From TrEMBL:
GO terms for molecular function: ferrous iron binding; oxidoreductase activity, acting on single donors with incorporation of molecular oxygen, incorporation of two atoms of oxygen; zinc ion binding. It comes from Luteimonas chenhongjianii. Residues 7-235 form the Extradiol ring-cleavage dioxygenase class III enzyme subunit B domain. Keywords: Dioxygenase, Metal-binding, Oxidoreductase, Zinc. Belongs to the DODA-type extradiol aromatic ring-opening dioxygenase family. Its cofactor is Zn(2+). This is Dioxygenase. Pfam families: LigB (PF02900). InterPro entries: Extradiol_dOase_DODA, Xdiol_dOase_suB.
Amino acid sequence: MSRLPALFISHGSPMTALEPGKVGERLAELAASLPRPRAIVLASAHWLTRSPQVGGAATPGTVHDFGGFPQALFDIRYPAPGDPVLSARVAALLQGAGLQPQVDPDRGLDHGVWVPLRLLYPAADIPVVPVSIQPGLGPAHQLRIGRALAPLRDEDVLVIGSGSITHNLHDWRSYDEARQAPYVQPFIDWIEQRMAAEDVDALLDYRRQAPYAERAHPTDEHLLPLYVAMGAGGTPMRAQRIDAGIDMGFLAMDIYRFDGEPAPLAD
């Protein structure tokens, strides 16, 4: 099997599961274009820990980590199996990078996992191992996590970061398709331009350098999975942006595909 890419997916609101729109179309196209992975390792913006955690459940449950949405969302199950052997492999790779992970034997699949995976692989028949992110440790730390996981791409494992290119819930219901938040397109463009230039230093320093960074991301957690995917994606970066639209006028739904060579682990 040829080497799998690493992916970053903007998963949007939980309602994406019921109203997938353009991102659903793009993810279905992407799944059809990829070799079928034997397993998926996914770093979600909705699993936040102080140090790296790896889900080790053999049968992870579907976690409905939200409120105030229609009952149809709470009725959804994504019954993908886990893979404890792969979980141990992920933990070993992170340990080898000096990241001191722990395995959580009970962790389920939060909506940052199952919402995009239902659109990529609706049969839920590919094992999934979730990985946490550490919002207190910044982008460079998440890049180290991704670089540690890069060898999995040669083991028929699809590495995914799931978050959002823009994510400011203070703007919920303030914008719509006819009136977009003014910061969204400049931020989209800056990320794409820095990716094309392979300007890792600028991307790591996005909060100072990107236009409207604090409006696009009042807190870091939804952009941090991008750095996991970047790290796993290797060098040269070979980043491809897949435009999946803008949801509710403020959530940029971009997908990024990374097809570089797995990079050496950072010191």
